[in-house]
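User: quick one
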Amino acid sequence: MDTWIEETLPMVFLAVLDGTVTAFVLALIALGLSLVFGVMRIVNVSHGEFFMLGAVFSWFAYHWTADSVWGFVLALLIAPVIVGFIAVFSERFILRKVEYNPESTIVATIGILYIIQQLTLMGFGPEARPVEAPIYFRVSFPWFGYSGYKLLVAVMSGLCLCGIWLLLKRTKLGLYMRATQQDYEIATTFGVPTKKIYASVFALGGGLAALAGVLVVPIRQADHLMGLEPLLLSFIVVIIGGLGSIRGTIIAAFLIGISDGIISVFYEPTLAKMLATLFVVMILIIKPSGLFGENYQ
Amino acid sequence: MLIIDRISSSYDQVRVLSDISMNIKEGEVLGLLGRNGAGKSTLLKSIMGLIKIDEGTIRLDDVVLSKKLAHEIPECGIGYIPQGRRLFPQLTVEENLKMGLYTRNSNNDVLDWALSLFPVLKTRLKQKSGTLSGGEQQMLATARALCLKPRYILMDEPSEGLMPKLIETIFDIVEKLKSENVSVLLVEQKIEGTLRISDRIVFIENGTLKEETTPEQLNDNPEPLEKYVGVKSQKDAGSQSFK
Ligand SMILES: Nc1ncnc2c1ncn2[C@@H]1O[C@H](COP(=O)(O)OP(=O)(O)OP(=O)(O)O)[C@@H](O)[C@H]1O
Ligand SMILES: [Mg+2]
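Assistant: Done. Structure below.
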């Protein structure tokens, strides 16, 4: 019995640690998706591609600078901005053209997904490419050492989440975003340029995904298909958390991230994804608005 | 002067307003009456730019409002209290008021003034507006619009669902606004009160302007009241509204 605990406890600890890191990154990606859905009422199927672009830019930055630290810093600063511009561009010339119609935007964002994916394939190639982490150190726990960079990823994601929270709750732009989410028509009658708010929300969503891509790429590699998994996971998170609810999104990210960590360590990753999907189905049946869904209007 | 010049509006090809002209002078209360579905709310939405007008123009003095983008119209000093309150339910009372303050960069004196009209809101600043009582919500919707320090204010049934005492408060505020030279376009079902505080009355039916008159004229000849809103006289209107 004692040896069983001695063997299991470190595993649980590792699983929770891994799960927490996943959860922070997932929260960042899913928050972008959730904001876009909440404010603009569109399902952005190309959200994962913004994540992938962040990772790919990170690889380019790493190669141009030939230095893992400077490459990382450069990618961290530039990738969200470039991706933000790409998002604004697609908002302006595609989503606005279909008047944000729910069905049309799904088709349109699938189109954006393929365009981004194929362009990346042409410019970056089909193979997965590694990016070196900017720092190497191991944090030692009683039973094992743990990647310091992973912890840094969790901390930086956490800081970003706080930043977004402050933006939404403490700034005029944030107030305008929330007001537009709740009643865009009435928001206009208080002088809110809702089209510009839409564009900023889309850019913010894309930028967050790109940032997550930059943070994650040293842990895994960059390839043109890497956007799919985070897209699916963030859909799961957003549905469980409640469409458009920020608090719900973050709580659900932790629920999914940590349970994913635990199930993956003790059983296997596929089972974790299956259970998550099953959970989504249950939520959709029992409480379609999600755990923290806020019903506006 | 707010000039509505021969406008027509429609929802998805269906014509709802046709060839409507009226104007609202500075410091005047204009009562707009008509049956359910006559197009009163549609007219207000057209002024706010929420629906594009098909024909005609809307001007504020020399500025052509109907050429502006919807979000630029409130910046000209036009406040709007929509039918059914339409607060931002997840925002706090304070945040709802801020939406009004930001529109024309009003300072805190404006906020104090708006709150002095509805002292009860002062104690509820941090509460989510969706959890306010119906009456409190209506007060907030009014205060929110006042926070943009409007020169013209469009009120769509501000007394809907309020108890008689609060209805009086709303009418008192309209009179107060008038005394501060704010113009009011008032859509109401409470006919007696509307006749009491309005300088002029217009009737619309099926999206067209039928009659333009004054409360005094209606006192002498209440026929349009019966024809367009189905009440026999001002006295009748009174009993109807305070039932
Ligand atoms: N969004 C819409 N789409 C289509 N038709 C609409 C829409 N809104 C209103 N209408 C129609 O336009 C007409 C005028 O509606 P409006 O809301 O302006 O009436 P109203 O005079 O404000 O009525 P009430 O006193 O009931 O508020 C009605 O026939 C209504 O059915
Ligand atoms: Mg109406």
